[in-house]
Design goal:
Length: 461
């Protein structure tokens, strides 16, 4: 079955349901979603109105002022206005027998290589006639190169969204799968999917965000210390970022001290009037085994909760290698990106074995990783026998010249002031103490973290 045929079947299924009735408001890519409903037939049973208010003056006069036109705020203005208009005008004639909806999108398409086409898309809908409204909010990055392809992708996604709202609202995982039906994940990325309203009371949007990453529909989920899922570009736009990768199972006092020393060093090196660096703790779903056992999404979310309890943002990703993290962050900022790593991780960066499945090859990957706007702050790796730093690390002979080049150009530097830190203490030592019932583990983690671990009885397995 062709993509077009399948999409038209979804649109027709919606049109054939005489209870589903609503409006379409689309800005930025034509009326690609509404078009499918008209082409499928029986659109008069479903479509009350379509509108494309492209002109900013017209748009503002309808929906009110907005600081940005391709934004979640503008989308919510559109949904609220169109839904209220629909329900108020048809209250007497259709409300008792209709499941009303308002679909809206505001997008930016582009054929220029220096801009990532993206947009916000949503639907406000009723589960049953006269019922309360629910919202599904989506942010999409479009990877198609040409505007026509971008419009086609948006059209398919919009039909999928309306279909999923009415036929899969009671199953978040099926809803996600339905969103991507007839779409190649290489053509788009959904980095925000919010399910809000009475029909989604039992749905955890953090779980939804990480499930998108697990399914390959999104590269990463950004979680605010208070638990909200954030859109990465909105949060990071042209800000310097400092990131520490790890399992953080659990986050330790040493983790906190190390990233704070990295922040201090980045501030000292920054030019005057530079924005303060955005600190970030990143965990990868690629590293989803701990002590030889697979861990669940709930485990990652609990770790994000503990990280948030000490004021840090969490990024839960599907990245295996450092250059992938850098490429992802570079989509959102043109400022400095600093990564805080232990000296033992230098072996992973400069080991060809770790790049055997990388299409671009090891030297292209490393060439892409190191530049004047990326810096690695390295803290010493200590055990009973060694204390490894950037100066004592010896890479494979094939990488010696590249490593020396990176050191000479300041791409890789030691973090100052780490001599007094016992960096031999890792999360696994904390877990071992927990399993043994040794209360000493509480001295190794921040107090808010120890309280959460005790309350929820985590990390003993």
């Amino acid at each position: 079955m062709s993509v077009l045929t399948s999409v038209q079947k979804k649109a027709l299924a919606l049109n054939q349901d005489d209870k589903i009735y609503g409006t379409f408001a689309e800005i930025g890519a034509g009326q690609e979603v509404a078009r499918h409903f008209f082409q499928a037939g029986l659109a008069s049973q479903t479509v009350a109105k379509t509108i494309s208010a492209y002109d900013m003056t017209f748009s503002d006069s309808i929906y009110g002022k907005s600081s940005r036109y391709v934004s979640e705020d503008r989308l919510k203005q559109m949904l609220a206005y169109e839904y209220e208009l629909l329900t108020s005008r048809l209250k007497e004639t259709k409300a008792k027998n209709s499941r009303f909806f308002s679909f809206a999108d505001t997008v930016s398409t582009s054929s220029r290589g220096d801009r990532v086409p993206h947009g916000w898309m949503g639907v406000r809908f009723q589960e049953s006639p006269l019922g309360p409204a629910n919202d599904i909010i989506v942010h999409v990055k479009i990877k198609d190169r040409q505007r026509l392809q971008q419009q086609e992708t948006l059209g398919v996604l919009g039909v999928n969204l309306v279909y999923a709202a009415f036929f899969h609202f009671n199953d978040p995982e099926k809803l996600m799968d339905s969103l991507f039906e007839n779409l190649d994940p290489s053509r788009l990325e959904i980095d925000i999917l919010r399910l809000e309203g009475p029909s989604f009371e039992s749905t955890d949007n953090q779980w939804v965000a990480v499930k998108l990453v697990e399914k390959g529909f999104s590269k990463a989920a950004l979680i605010h210390p208070e638990g909200d899922v954030l859109q990465v570009t909105d949060c990071f736009f042209n800000k310097p970022i400092i990131l520490q990768r790890g399992t953080f199972r659990p986050i330790t006092n040493i983790n906190i001290e190390i990233i704070n020393k990295g922040i201090d060093q980045l501030k000292q090196e920054a030019v005057e009037n530079t924005l303060a660096p955005f600190p970030l703790m990143e965990m990868s779903l690629k590293h989803n085994e701990v002590d030889g056992h697979p861990v669940s999404i709930d485990d990652y979310l609990f770790r994000a909760k503990t990280i948030g309890s000490v004021g840090y943002y969490s990024l839960i990703s599907n990245f295996d290698l450092f250059y992938q993290v850098k490429d992802y962050l570079r989509e959102s900022t043109n400022k400095k990106i600093a990564m805080v790593i232990g000296a033992s991780h230098l072996e992973n960066i400069f080991d060809e074995e770790f790049y055997k499945n990388v299409p671009v090859g090891v030297f292209n990957a490393l060439g892409n990783l190191f530049d004047e706007m990326v810096k690695f702050y390295v803290f010493p790796y200590k055990d009973d026998k060694i204390c490894m730093t950037t100066q004592s690390f010896n890479p494979n002979p094939d990488f010696v010249h590249l490593y020396k080049h990176s050191l000479a150009n300041g791409y890789i530097v030691d973090i100052a002031g780490c001599d007094d830190l016992d960096t031999s203490i890792h999360s696994k030592e904390v877990r071992a103490l927990l399993r043994a019932g040794n209360e000493q583990w509480k001295e190794l983690v921040p107090e808010p973290v120890s309280q959460l671990i005790t309350k929820y009885n985590y990390f003993k397995g």
